[in-house]
Amino acid sequence: MTSLEIKNINKHYGAVQALHDVSLSINKGEFVTLLGPSGSGKTTVLKILAGFEPVTSGQVLMEGRDVTALPPEKRNFGLVFQGYALFPHMSVYDNIAYPLRVRRQSKAMIDERVLAALDLVQLRKFANRRPQELSGGQQQRVALARALVFKPDVLLLDEPMSALDKQLRHDLQEELREIHRSLGTTFINVTHDQEEAMHMSDRIAIMDHGQIKQYDTAHQLYRRPASRFVAEFVGKSNVFQGEVRGSGSSARFYSASFEMPLADAQTGASTVMIRPEDAEITTTAPNDGRITLPVQVISSTYSGDRALYTLLQSDGADFIAYAPARSGVFPDGTDIFVSFASQDVIALA
Amino acid sequence: MSRLIYWVSVTFCASFLILPLVVVWPLAFNPSSFLTYPMEGFTFDWFAKVLSDPGWTRPMLNSVRVALGVTVLAVVIGGLAALGVMMTRRGTQIVLSALFVSPLVVPSVVVAVALAYAFGRTGVGGGYLSLVLAHSIVAAPLVFLSVMTSLRGLDPNLDLAGASLGASRIYRFFTVTLPLTAPGFAAGAVFAFITSFDEVVLALFLADPGSSTLPIALFAGLRDRLEPPIVVVAVLLSVLSVLFLMLLNYLQKRHAAPRS
């Protein structure tokens, strides 16, 4: 069931168009992430959803109701700010109680719900502290509790992890997923961190230059990217330019270094991609029907379970590939072969 | 070398600014009715005389009454102006700020003449009300500047956070903006009080005999009879100023604390 729907939103700042015809439909209880580089318009979408920015044209619908012109205080959307925006003159308890006091809840009700929210983020013993006395991760959880305590229809998260270190970020991602699962509230997260997006989201909207490039599950984005931009933004990839000859089932892709049948590709697709984990590295050419390219090791990054190789192709382009590293890594300069099956090659529009 | 420059400049400024004041102060405790050294003894008689003379106490009370009225009016006007200007765009902010601060730049004599004429024409007349209005014009920009500084230091996301949590603009002002910028409002209020309390030019033009303020009484005293009571009043004013300075300092320290 559709909970929140964004319909054909355009946003201009003077002569600059920040959003081009953005449409997005989000189901009730879904965890959706807007992912894109800085300046892609993802934060603008969030500000429009929160009610901080007016739209130039288009609509925001909440369960079918038009909320486009509603001020933020009338929307009942929770928002976790990038810098947390906790009230420094109030205790943790008072920060979380704020939205309940605004709604004139009874003292007993406030007490019950604030303590429940504190338990949810495991900060009960910090209730009487000031926000400044807490660590970044704790402040983040207070902000989360404050944005959830009034049972908002939608929770908006503006780069919630960006100020935290890597380990903390990972823990909080887990915690956030857990909270999302237990509450069933619709979550909309904004980030430029693709790993975070893939870990947490049911669906991800990839944004670039004020447009939504693709809106799909993490798996579909990774395995079936709609464009070169998406393929390169989500995960690592080896992109080949070439040309397609023939059409339908007899279509073939030709690049400078190899050719292959292109079964499901639309004719004219001239860009294909191979994920680094789909390629295999061998010291001799395997001759098993897979596409094989002679390459030379430029560098390798060893990470215990495997190594990431940067390889030099004969035409001078780079190729990156993962390989198991149980018996060490090939030294730089080694001539080896990289092979991949044609069904693992992904055609890009 | 820099220490030497520091001490030379401090000594020079201190002697230039403070010495003339310090030289006069002891004469408030001199039994002689002439303002001359050497001192003939030590007495509080002149203080008793000033504090029991309606010629001094009435202007003092008038000054306090005017200054309190000015403080209230200037905080409301200056505070509202600052809040409003902060909501506008950057370009507009610069223009409006310059406009609100302009009474500080226009010579008081010009303002005084203009107001005396305007009040006379409209029948607001001399006395308490006209003095409060006139002083507020000069005091409001000080409140405006002080509150603006506080508001600029405030994270704008706090207000947005309040809005996203369901709070109306007025609720947000009283629960978030005001508590966090209170030191700015308080400092502005102190500035407004001091400004009104020792303002001479506007008061000379606008006060009638019944609403004459302390600075006017001092001024008249300087002209008519140069006696120790003038120095006594000067000492009292200095003490008051020092107290206010300490208060300002305390407020600023409190303001700086939560940000660290």
From TrEMBL, chain A:
<keyword id="KW-0547">Nucleotide-binding</keyword>
<dbReference type="InterPro" id="IPR050093">
    <property type="entry name" value="ABC_SmlMolc_Importer"/>
</dbReference>
<dbReference type="GO" id="GO:0015417">
    <property type="term" value="F:ABC-type polyamine transporter activity"/>
</dbReference>
<dbReference type="InterPro" id="IPR008995">
    <property type="entry name" value="Mo/tungstate-bd_C_term_dom"/>
</dbReference>
<feature type="domain" description="ABC transporter">
    <location>
        <begin position="4"/>
        <end position="234"/>
    </location>
</feature>
<dbReference type="InterPro" id="IPR003439">
    <property type="entry name" value="ABC_transporter-like_ATP-bd"/>
</dbReference>
<protein>
    <recommendedName>
        <fullName>Spermidine/putrescine import ATP-binding protein PotA</fullName>
        <ecNumber>7.6.2.11</ecNumber>
    </recommendedName>
</protein>
<keyword id="KW-0067">ATP-binding</keyword>
<dbReference type="InterPro" id="IPR005893">
    <property type="entry name" value="PotA-like"/>
</dbReference>
<comment type="function">
    <text>Part of the ABC transporter complex PotABCD involved in spermidine/putrescine import. Responsible for energy coupling to the transport system.</text>
</comment>
<dbReference type="InterPro" id="IPR017871">
    <property type="entry name" value="ABC_transporter-like_CS"/>
</dbReference>
<dbReference type="Pfam" id="PF00005">
    <property type="entry name" value="ABC_tran"/>
</dbReference>
<dbReference type="GO" id="GO:0016887">
    <property type="term" value="F:ATP hydrolysis activity"/>
</dbReference>
<comment type="subunit">
    <text>The complex is composed of two ATP-binding proteins (PotA), two transmembrane proteins (PotB and PotC) and a solute-binding protein (PotD).</text>
</comment>
<comment type="similarity">
    <text>Belongs to the ABC transporter superfamily. Spermidine/putrescine importer (TC 3.A.1.11.1) family.</text>
</comment>
<dbReference type="InterPro" id="IPR003593">
    <property type="entry name" value="AAA+_ATPase"/>
</dbReference>
<dbReference type="GO" id="GO:0043190">
    <property type="term" value="C:ATP-binding cassette (ABC) transporter complex"/>
</dbReference>
<keyword id="KW-0472">Membrane</keyword>
<keyword id="KW-1278">Translocase</keyword>
<dbReference type="InterPro" id="IPR013611">
    <property type="entry name" value="Transp-assoc_OB_typ2"/>
</dbReference>
<dbReference type="Pfam" id="PF08402">
    <property type="entry name" value="TOBE_2"/>
</dbReference>
<keyword id="KW-1003">Cell membrane</keyword>
UniProtKB/TrEMBL annotation, chain B:
<feature type="domain" description="ABC transmembrane type-1">
    <location>
        <begin position="60"/>
        <end position="248"/>
    </location>
</feature>
<keyword id="KW-1133">Transmembrane helix</keyword>
<keyword id="KW-0812">Transmembrane</keyword>
<keyword id="KW-0472">Membrane</keyword>
<keyword id="KW-0813">Transport</keyword>
<dbReference type="GO" id="GO:0055085">
    <property type="term" value="P:transmembrane transport"/>
</dbReference>
<keyword id="KW-0997">Cell inner membrane</keyword>
<protein>
    <submittedName>
        <fullName>Putative spermidine/putrescine transport system permease protein</fullName>
    </submittedName>
</protein>
<comment type="similarity">
    <text>Belongs to the binding-protein-dependent transport system permease family.</text>
</comment>
<feature type="transmembrane region" description="Helical">
    <location>
        <begin position="94"/>
        <end position="119"/>
    </location>
</feature>
<dbReference type="Pfam" id="PF00528">
    <property type="entry name" value="BPD_transp_1"/>
</dbReference>
<dbReference type="InterPro" id="IPR035906">
    <property type="entry name" value="MetI-like_sf"/>
</dbReference>
<feature type="transmembrane region" description="Helical">
    <location>
        <begin position="66"/>
        <end position="87"/>
    </location>
</feature>
<dbReference type="GO" id="GO:0005886">
    <property type="term" value="C:plasma membrane"/>
</dbReference>
<feature type="transmembrane region" description="Helical">
    <location>
        <begin position="170"/>
        <end position="194"/>
    </location>
</feature>
<dbReference type="InterPro" id="IPR000515">
    <property type="entry name" value="MetI-like"/>
</dbReference>
<feature type="transmembrane region" description="Helical">
    <location>
        <begin position="229"/>
        <end position="251"/>
    </location>
</feature>
<feature type="transmembrane region" description="Helical">
    <location>
        <begin position="7"/>
        <end position="29"/>
    </location>
</feature>
<keyword id="KW-1003">Cell membrane</keyword>
<feature type="transmembrane region" description="Helical">
    <location>
        <begin position="125"/>
        <end position="149"/>
    </location>
</feature>
